[in-house]
Sequence to fold (216 residues):
Amino acid sequence: MARTALMPAKRKPKADTSARDVKGEISAYKRRLILEEACHLFYAHGYEGTTLDAIAERLNVTKPFIYSYHRNKAEILREISERGIRLCLAALDEVRSNGGTPLAQLKAIVDRVTTLILENQEYIVVYQREEKNLEPATARDIRRLRKMFDTRLEALLDEGVASGEFDIEDTGFAAISISGLMSWTANWFQPGGRRPASEVIVQTLKMVTHMVAAPK
Fold:
């Protein structure tokens, strides 16, 4: 009996992902614009003093346009408030993954995180001022991320104590103090002021190395 030849299976055409990628990039860009303008207004007038109408007017769009990217004003505040800690946590994790001595890692973290805080100053300040207006679940989630940052920084300080690079009595307290020192720069730094960002970063690094009694 003749064996029936198997017909090759038809290949499904590959989906054209380029159009979806472009659409996704455009959508992300528009979301980012909304957040940036909302953050400017929250920073200048406060969360309660800013309406969605004001954000729409600033962007020269309609309010339904904003609703197509964000459910409400509370969601915008959430994304603004999360931005700083997520960026800082990602920077810490990247430094840790690259390895190096505890002192080298600590210096890199302070440099990168302080830079991020100054670059995203309005986002940091809006969160600090408006935490009271966050939905309770959102506020807890952000505090959890902040705790995660402090815990991972504490682990680095523990490694430095074990290696003899750091002389710290309470690494948990030191980690919280270092985080607070860096984040507080957002409240007093003046772009174009007497102290440029580069000097703020250098001075912050000096204070942190002094806190951990790191050798020069």
About this structure: The mean pLDDT is 90.
